[in-house]
Design goal:
Na+/H+ antiporter like fold, 77% helix
Length: 388
């Protein structure tokens, strides 16, 4: 296998771009094409590539780039301005899906750690599918579109924080007694150190790059910051992606945000990120999954209706009418990058089984297919309504 790693990487990168483009043509997120490529190349069909140490390492870096980019794109000022309309739909889209995911897994196997992880998987919203559909309908800048985008960002932030605490409490130090206290201290310490470095070192440093003659190495320095924050998070017993996200959050407040975003996107999505999504499909054989069909169906239905009802109720309480509440709930359905990252990390750490990862992949694909249908129905078939 080691002799063929260069060939394997060439095949992964080449075909991930082709299938990603095909998925985009079919109005689906490119991640769906990459997942299918992994399933085709892996043990499910051709058994041509196995995820070895090199592929796993590249995939890990890809995850860090992905979450760093999410942090860069988080506009704290915009969220603060629009939070009045987005906060309750976001809250409903967290509480109900989390509760349903937790209840489903706890009922099936009485494992609290697995139930908590699935709860987090259910909270994550991938807004890319909704954004593409809303753009096609010319509704992205409407009140529903703005609410969906902002609520999805809030959901992802809360999901990452939930994941931080769950991994911090369930890995290594135990779940109760002194270990629990140590976990709280470590988590608190990470946030304090990350905040102090970000505010008093990173932001002034990046603002003064020209003065210290380092303006042309901004991308390299940004990558160093991603890796440093990820290492700090792991040293605190947390997920590395938490550190990557907060690194992006801090650098996103500097004047170099656009340059960093362009550079990281080009580097990450040209190579590392594609390998990560393909590697998920390489990890298991779909034909050997022992999960009951009833479990898979309930997993997908709970996740979908949890968002429609939870976010829809939040929108209704915010004084949106029923039609607009349905549109917002439908726009919050898709699961994507964050859900896959959480599931994959939990599998690597031995917290969940491959059955839950495969159920998550099924959820990502089904939710990507159903969201455009429901959004188009909500905007085209239901009557136009006004915001009260």
């Amino acid at each position: 296998m080691e002799n063929h790693i260069l060939l394997h990487l060439a095949i992964i990168i080449f075909f991930s771009k082709i299938l990603g483009a095909v998925a985009r043509k079919l109005k689906q997120p490119p991640v769906v094409g990459m997942l299918l490529l992994g399933i085709i190349l892996g043990p499910t069909l051709f058994h041509f590539i196995e995820p070895d140490e090199v592929i796993n390492w590249i995939a890990k870096v890809g995850v860090l780039f992905l979450l760093f980019e999410a942090g860069l794109e988080t506009n704290l000022k915009r969220i603060k301005e629009d939070s009045k309309q987005a906060s309750l739909p976001a809250l409903g889209g967290i509480i109900l899906p989390f509760s349903l995911g937790f209840a489903l897994i706890y009922f099936v196997n009485h494992n609290i750690s697995q139930a908590l992880i699935v709860g987090v998987i259910f909270t994550a919203t991938s807004v890319s599918v909704s954004v593409m559909t809303l753009l096609d309908l010319g509704k992205l800048k409407g009140i529903e579109g703005r609410c969906i985008v902002n609520a999805a960002i809030i959901d992802d932030i809360v999901g990452i924080l939930l994941l931080t605490f769950i991994f911090g409490f369930t890995s290594g130090t135990g779940e109760s007694g002194p270990g629990f206290t140590i976990s709280i201290i470590k988590i608190g310490g990470f946030f304090i150190v990350a905040f102090l470095i970000g505010i008093f070192i990173l932001q002034p440093f990046f603002l003064n790059l020209k003065k210290i003659l380092l303006d042309n190495v901004v991308i390299s320095l940004a990558i160093a910051v991603v890796l440093l924050y990820s290492w700090l998070a792991e040293m605190a017993g947390l997920a590395a992606i938490t550190g990557a996200y907060f690194a992006g959050l801090f650098l996103g407040q500097t004047q170099h945000k656009h340059a960093v975003h362009t550079g990281i996107t080009n580097i990450g999505k040209s190579f590392f990120v594609d390998v990560f999504f393909v590697s998920i499909g390489l990890q298991f054989d779909l034909f050997e999954i022992e999960a009951e069909p009833v479990f898979l169906i309930l997993f997908v239905l709970f996740a979908i209706f949890g968002k429609i009802i939870g976010s829809g109720l939040g929108a209704r309480i915010t004084k949106f009418d029923s039609v607009r509440s349905f549109r917002i709930g439908s726009g919050m359905i898709p699961r994507g990058e964050v859900a896959l990252i959480v599931a994959n990390m939990a599998l690597v750490k031995g917290v969940i089984s491959t059955d839950i990862l495969s159920a998550t992949i099924l959820l990502v694909i089904v939710s990507a297919l159903i969201t455009p249908i429901l959004l188009k129905f909500g905007f085209m078939k239901l009557q136009k309504s006004s915001f009260n």
